[in-house]
Design goal:
By secondary structure, the protein is mainly alpha-helical. 74% of the residues lie in helices and 4% in strands. It has a three-stranded antiparallel beta sheet. Strand 2 and strand 3 form a beta hairpin. GO terms for molecular function: DNA binding; DNA-binding transcription factor activity.
Length: 236
């Protein structure tokens, strides 16, 4: 990774200005996405506070935010349970994401600064390398950085808030299922094409490229659904 990408992917504890609740949220989100905390796991504020070496108040706030995006659910007298993923919900999510992604990339193509375009170029190369290596974890980290950087380059604070939860849910789904679909290289190619058009400042071509990306993701989701329907897929 380049130094700029390493800065983006750095441990959030290195940012002194970041609120502890935000740190806890990012840590717990990644633990759930990466299945360190797998579906149906019961967790407690005390347990998580000890593991992340922080107080229970930021953990409590982080869990509330995770509940709002469907990552956990609160169960009376039992605690907090990590929710599973849902293929049908993923299809609904893609339906919502499609027009929003088009808006993000078109705004980014028109508004990105030279520094932001340079970073997007580095990220494009990085996700292609991760795909070629078959590295699921690295691929999804680049995926997260790409989406965050595209939204940042769009310079629209409302889009930033809306897209964060959508992208987190999608990353979680793909971490579970992408190994089954062997689609790293095709996904990286789609992302790279979108990034090329943003970097070039071509809003219309960026919009067309992200349409192809969303069609690819929808096809991947339907393929996963078919595998589960035929009994060949793994449960959540």
């Amino acid at each position: 990774m380049s130094s700029k990408i390493r800065d983006l992917a750095a441990d959030p504890f290195t940012d002194p200005d970041q609120r502890l609740a935000d740190v806890a949220f990012e840590k717990l989100e990644e633990m759930i996405v990466m299945r360190i905390l797998p579906p149906n796991t019961m967790v407690s504020e005390q347990q998580l506070a000890a593991e992340l070496n922080m107080g229970r108040t930021p953990i409590r706030e982080a869990l509330q935010r995770l509940r709002q995006i469907g990552f956990v659910e609160m169960q009376p007298r039992r605690g907090t349970m990590v929710c599973g993923t849902d293929i049908h919900q993923q299809l609904e999510l893609l339906e919502v994401r499609r027009p929003l992604e088009e808006l993000v990339v078109s705004c980014a193509a028109e508004r990105a600064t030279p520094e932001e375009r340079e970073l997007l170029q580095d990220l494009s190369k990085g996700i292609v390398r991760a795909a070629a290596a078959g590295d699921t974890t690295d691929y999804l980290r680049y995926n997260r950085l790409i989406h965050e950087s595209e939204v940042r380059a769009a310079h629209n604070s409302m889009l930033s808030q809306i897209m964060a939860a959508n992208h987190a849910q999608s990353r979680r789904f793909w971490y579970q299922h992408i190994q089954q679909n062997r689609a790293f290289e095709e996904g990286a190619k789609c992302h790279s094409t979108v990034l090329e058009q943003i970097i070039a400042g071509d809003a219309e071509r960026a919009r067309l490229a992200v349409k192809l990306l969303m069609e690819f993701l929808e096809g991947l989701t339907l393929s996963t659904l078919n595998k589960y329907s035929s009994g060949t897929g793994k449960g959540s």
